[in-house]
Amino acid sequence: MKVARPNSSPAAALPQSALIGRFERVRRMSLALATPLSDEDCQVQSMPDASPTKWHLAHVTWFFETFILERFEPGFRAFEPMFRVLFNSYYQGVGERHPRPQRGLITSPTMAEVKRYRANVDERMAALLSARPDDGGLIELVTLGLHHEQQHQELLLTDIKHVLSFNPMHPPYAKRWPIGAVNPQPLRWHAYEGALFDIGHDPTSDGCFCFDNETPRHKAYLADFELASRPVSNDEFLAFIDDGGYQRPELWLSMGWDWVQAGGRKSPLYWICDQGRWLAHTLQGIVEIDPHTPACHLSFFEADAYARWAGARLPTEAEWEVAARKLGRPASTHDNFADRGAFHPLPSAVHDDDEPVQLFGDVWEWTQSNYNPYPGYRPLPGAVGEYNGKFMCNQFVLRGGSCATPAGHVRASYRNFFPPDAQWQFTGLRLAR
Hints:
By secondary structure, the chain is α+β, with helices and mostly antiparallel strands. The chain folds into 2 domains: about 10-165, Up-down Bundle (Four Helix Bundle (Hemerythrin (Met), subunit A)); about 190-430, paralog of FGE (formylglycine-generating enzyme) (Alpha-Beta Complex). The protein contains 12 helices and 11 strands. The strands form 4 sheets. It has a 4-stranded mixed beta sheet with strand order 10-9-8-11. It has a 3-stranded antiparallel beta sheet with strand order 5-6-7, with no helix packed on it. Strands 1-4 form a two-stranded antiparallel sheet. The chain is globular.
C-alpha cells in the first residue's frame, strides 16, 4: 500500500481540537496491534516486500518527526539523527535511505528504544498541536500522517501474518477463531444501466479527506454491466482448483502462467492440503478452510484466471465505485474491518436487501483496471507528494478494504494498488460481466 498526498483543499483536514484526540487514538492503536507479539516477532522480516513490526512503528513516527516537527517545532532537534536514514521508506527528497530488503537487520534500536522514540515524538506533537495555530498546513500534514499510520497498521498485520507462516509452531496472533455457523448466501447478479458517471472523490459522501490519486473527480462512461452479489468464496475457488485451474494455461495471462510455473503454484498463499483436507495459515493459527468465507490472498493473476474459468471477468474500478455508491452509505463500522478483531474474512450473512454485500471490509477486491492517473491529475512538488504518482506503472487497482483495514479508513473512492503477483495482502475478487 502506497502513501499519497492529501487533497490540497484545507477542508481535507480535521479541526485542530478534534485532531488532537484522533492523533492519540491512532497512535495507541498501532501499539495495541503490536501487543500480542514478542520483541523477537517484531524484529523478523520475511521477504523484501514485508517490513518488521518494529520498523513500521518507527517509520510512522519518523513521518511525524521529519515532515512536521522538523518544520514546525521551535528549536527542533532530532531524537536520533541516524533514524532519518534508517526509517525513511521511499522519500528520495528527504535523503539517504536504508535498503528495504535489509530492514530486518536493524537490530538497534531495540523495540524498547523504538517505543521511547514514539513516546518522545508523541509528547512533542501534543505540545505542538496544543500551542500552534494551523500555520502553513500543519493540520493538513498531521491528517495525512494519521492516514499514513493507518495504512501501516494494515501492513503491520499482513506482514506479521507472513512472518508467522514460516514458524513451524504456527503461533496464533489473535488466539481465537471467529467463524461461526452461517447460512450460505447464493451468488446473485445485480444489473447496472450504462450511463455517464462521476468518478473520484466526492466530499459529500466520501468525507473531507482523500489521497491525491482519488482526484480529480471526472466523468466516465460505462456500458451496461452486472456485478456479483458477494465475493468469490473458498468453496468456489476449490472448484477451480479441482477442475485443474492451476494446470490449464488457457485460463491464464501469459505473465500469470509464467508465475504459476516458476513457483510451482497449486493453490492460494497460506493454503495447505493435508491428506485431502484443506487447511490455511491465519492470524489465529492453522485452521480448516471454511467453504463460505471469501477466498483471499489471491494474486491478480489468480483472480483473473478464476474469472475467466467462471465465464465472467473482473470489474473495472469505475464499475466497482458506481456499485458502491448505489448502496447509499459509506464504509461502515459494522463491516468486517480490523477494529472488529476477527483479522480474517467472515462469511456473508443472509441478506434480504437486493444489493451487493461485503463491498467494504473482509477482502480487497481486485479490479481489471491499471493503476493510472485520472484525467487532469497533477502531482504537486515536494517530498511528501513524491510517493504516489511515481508508482503509476505495472500495478492494478483494488477497492473496498479488508479485515486488516482500520474502520473509517476507506471510502468509495479509495484506490489501493499492488503489482499483479502480490498475494500477502487480504486480496480476493468479485465477478462482473
